[in-house]
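Hi R.,

Here's the chain you asked about this morning:
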Amino acid sequence: MNRYFAVLVTGFLVLLVGGGSRFAIGLTLKPMAADFDWSRSIVSLAVFVSLVVSSLCMYLSGRLADRFNLTHVLVAGLIISALGIGLISFALAPWQAFLLYGIIFAFGNGLTSLTPVGVMITQWFPKRIGLANAFAISGMGFGQLLMIAVLALILVQSGWRPVYLWLGVANLALVPFVLMAVSQRDFKNESGQKSAAQTDNSVKFRDARDTPYFRRLIIIYMICGFQDFFVATHIVAFAQDQGVPTLFAGNILALMGLTAVIGVILSGFWSDKSDPLQPTIACFILRIFLFTLIIFSRDSLSVTIFALGYGLTFLATAPLTVVFVRKAFGLRYLGAITGFISMVHQMAGGLGAYLGGVFFDQSGDYRTAFVLMLFLSMAGVLSSLYFKRVAVVSS
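And the predicted structure, written out as tokens:
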């Protein structure tokens, strides 16, 4: 197998299984809450803890990716993920599910996140960073589309426990493929030349974090993460609350993955042709329209339009992270810098997922949460427009 193709496919599959595994909690939120007699805010708290742990591991995986064999990092993450999420199917008490999903699986999922995959892809495809990373990251969308669709059938026929057992099997099945398909190239391309990571004038992480460019990136990705994980965690339960049948509601989450694939590919291609800020601004403008729609209209058609439209933006900023960072700070510390940004993005996501449950438990409705998301989308547009000035000054 061509090594470039093997690297690209490996990144795609790792993110496919990891994304499908992470989004499964949104599919099973309602039956798990009923089985364990939890409120939705408690299940959402488990999601929050999971995202905090995995986000810390994203930064750790970025540091490891800058220093060690990427294959070993990915294999360790897959094994830990398989154990954590697979054993959830045998949980007899809420604290066990909390530990397995919130701590163990989250740790492994952080080691197989888009941070080490992004470093791997960027090393191999320095001239098409946006598009190559978009292809790999589209695995998360396909994971949401294919895996959630299959898992929704399992959920309807057998309950929520087998869902997690099969997810454990899927994570473990990737281990031999990663070992066979990818070997660490020691920061060299196939012709033996040194990579750009060794030859460019890279900015160290501690210097990068003191720049206005970096701080503005953090704000943008915090907003994105807060919104993304709120929607991913609560969209199925919200649809069911509006009278949408369980299988159709699960398929709405799955179809979000399809539109996410379209969005992420367009975003990566767009960023290679122009500037990563343009797709970022477009992402927030579309979200303004969608959150306005769902605040005022909640019939099945509106819920479907909202979910599919939001899917277009769901992963759109993910391939842009490495483009932003490489443009401003170089490649040598790409893992550490993108890992930190991804960490903040996911921590904000955990807060969004948790507060969504809190808003629902307090009012019996998601309206307040949707209004908050609308204002955050407006803030995202303003931050991006101001960031354009900062980027020009800092470049």
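The CA atoms of residues 211 and 373 lie 27 Å apart.

Let me know if you need anything else.
M.
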